[in-house]
Design a protein that fits this description.
Layout: H1 3-10, H2 16-27, H3 37-46, H4 50-70, H5 73-86, H6 96-115, H7 119-124, H8 129-139, H9 143-159, H10 168-181, H11 192-206, H12 210-227
Helix pairs in contact: 1-2, 1-12, 2-4, 2-8, 3-4, 4-12, 5-6, 5-11, 6-10, 6-11, 8-9, 10-11
Length: 235
């Protein structure tokens, strides 16, 4: 799942630090040294700090949500369809299924933005400067790691790249940048206009059932967390 979809499944009436925690697993790959999620969770839970428990809940929620969502048959069907749609537009693409995976998740965020154009502002509103610094301080006892994460979080909130999802051209550009960063493609001659048109067509085709999908994932994640003995923090 992508950032806005994770936040939708997470729900409201939770402390802002929970929302920051739910974003961290998708930001950790940008660090010079990528943390091990289970090690971070163990450290946070052992601290006895309320803020640490709040941050840990967001991280754990993200992990349970990804496991639930990626195994859902609707996601698998969307993944197959998007893979077929991307292949004509991205030449010499390595692991087309991974690129399609990214796009399917971006399109689910776009569906949420169609329903609420103010969602980007509400989402980034959880990431105050103080909250970001608190998350960094809690996440690691290594100054270099904390500083690296602070930089990633600052850029994440400053660029507000999720606003690009309001246009299909923006999604196409973000998709190409992502797959270039992870070296899935090296062809610099992507026709962004044609790719954007394909993104729009896929959005129209895959939009149906998105609300039911997210609602079902939310219910399953809540049950999974309860079974694991993980309770949500108080607002």
């Amino acid at each position: 799942m992508n950032f806005l979809s994770h936040d939708r499944v997470l729900g409201e009436a939770l402390p802002p630090l929970t929302h920051v925690g739910a974003a961290l697993p998708d930001l950790w790959p940008l660090l010079a040294v990528r943390p091990l999620p289970l090690v971070v969770l163990r450290r946070l839970r052992a601290s006895g700090d309320r803020d640490a428990e709040t941050l840990a809940y967001g991280i754990a929620h993200h992990m349970h949500a990804d496991a639930t969502f990626h195994g859902h048959p609707v996601f698998q069907a969307r993944l197959a369809r998007a893979t077929r749609g991307l292949e004509p537009h991205l030449r010499e693409l390595r692991h087309p299924g991974l690129a399609a995976h990214v796009l399917v998740e971006m399109l689910l965020d776009r569906w949420l933005l169609d329903r609420d154009p103010q969602l980007v502002d509400a989402y980034y509103g959880h990431f105050s400067h103080a909250g970001r610094r608190r998350a960094c301080d809690l996440s690691s006892d290594e100054p270099g790691v904390r500083d690296d994460l602070a930089g990633v979080l600052d850029r994440f909130t400053a660029t507000r790249f999720l606003a690009d999802y309001t246009t299909f051209a923006g999604i196409a550009l973000r998709l190409v940048r992502t797959i270039r960063r992870v070296r899935l493609i090296e062809d610099d001659e992507v026709d962004l206009a044609a790719l954007g048109a394909e993104v729009g067509a896929l959005h129209e085709e895959l939009a149906a059932g998105s609300e039911a999908l997210l609602d079902e994932v939310a219910v399953r994640v809540d049950a999974s967390l309860r079974d694991a003995g993980i309770a949500p923090p108080e607002a």
